[in-house]
Structures are given as structure tokens and as C-alpha cells.
Amino acid sequence: MPTIRTPIRRTISFRQEETNITKTTQGLFGLYRYPAKFIPQVVTWCLKQGDYNSVIDPFAGAGTVGLACHLQQIGVEMWDINPMLKHLAQSVKTLSSTSVPNPLQLVKEAIDFKNSQALDCDLEYLSQWYDRRVLAVLKNLWLFYNQTSKRKRALLLAPLLRLSNEWSYNDFQCQKLFKSTRSINSINDRLGERTWKKNFYADFASKVSKAHNQYITQ
Asked: Where are the beta strands (DSSP E) in the chain?
């Protein structure tokens, strides 16, 4: 007769179990909204329950499983139609194999960078989601990102994506892109301040420093 095991029932709080991950948007986690994604604490807890050499995630979505595997030093293969996954995977690979750049120096390089080159994107479309002043500053930062080294891009990816999200007209209460009166008023209030550009760059510097501190401690 086969042995029938009695299931073990227990109540668990993944956030309390995985205290090294303090936020679901830590590091490269949660860079953009994605329906029905795992919180990183769940994936990390599950990985620790077994002895895994590698993991395959055929529907990688926002890359949560892959990033959690990286932090646990487990090999991972990620597949998805989402084009962002390529950039996330490259950043993870680069940060795990090279030293992390100095954040203050990198921020200064990005802010001081000047280039009249056109951004390879639909500016008419972007103008629907950004004030022209914000778009001009973001354009310069993304042009710097495109021409700099892989090592520097790896550290800049998360801060620039978060900055681009937070200074857009997108309403973050919605899972999909949605331009609301509330989000427009919020951006206009920021731009109404004389020091809005100084605040913008301070926000950028803070995000880069935070990302740097997370990567060197992981």
C-alpha cells in the first residue's frame, strides 16, 4: 500500500519571512505594472524550500522570478513576449558580473550630458504623456543612457524607468496606461514650483543612490 502523507497546514506571511526584501518595488522588482505578477517575497521563499541549480520561467512577465533567482545565485532562463525583459535580464547579468559604478559621478555625467541627437521614438505619442519641459529633460537622460557603457546602463535602468513613470501623466491607480485629471494636476503642481528641475534632478540622484546601495548589499 502506498504511504499517504498528511498535508501540513500553516499560516505564513511571506513579507515577514523574507525580511531582506522590504518593498515589492526594491531594486529591479516592480519597475512597471503587470497584471497578476508575483510579489518577490513569494518567489524568494519558494526558491529557498528546495535545492535548485536552475529555473525556467516560460512566461516571465515583469521578470520577478528571474530577479529572485539572481539574488539567490540560481541559474535562470526567462522567456516572454515583453520587450522590457531583454533590458532587465541584461542589467541583472551585468550587475552580477562587474563592479557597480559610483552613483554620484554617474548622476553628474548624465545631467551634464548634452546631445542634439533625435530620440528614436514617437515624440508625438510621448507628448501625450509628458509635459514638454519634462520630456526635454528625460530625453537627454535617455540619450545618455543609450550611448554609455553597459555597466552604467545596468545601474541607470531602474532609476530612469521609475523617474519616467513618476513624472508622466499616467495614473498609477490603474493597471494599464490611463491619463486622468488627478495625474495631470499632480504633475502641473510640481511644475508650478520654481525649483521643479532641481527637484527633478534630486529625485533622479536619490533613485540612483538607492539602487547603488541595494546592489552592493545584495
From this structure: 54-57, 75-78
Q: Which of 56, 51, 3, 45 is nearest to 21 (CA)?
A: 45
Q: Output 55-60 pairs: Cβ under 8 A, ≥24 positions apart.
A: 60/85
Cβ distance 27 to 218 under 8 Å? yes
* pLDDT by 10-residue block (mean), the chain, 218 residues: 72 84 78 75 90 89 84 86 79 71 91 76 79 92 91 90 91 79 93 95 93 68
Residue count of the chain, please give it.
Answer: 218
Any idea of the CA torsion for 173, 174, 180, 185, to the nearest 10 degrees?
Answer: 30
C-alpha cell at 125: 505619442
Q: What is the DSSP letter of 37?
A: P
d(CA 137, CA 165): 14
**Whole-model pTM?**
0.79
Q: How far apart are CA 63 and CA 40, in angstroms?
A: 10
Instruction: Provide the 8-state DSSP code for 36.
Output: T
Amino acid at position 190, single letter: R
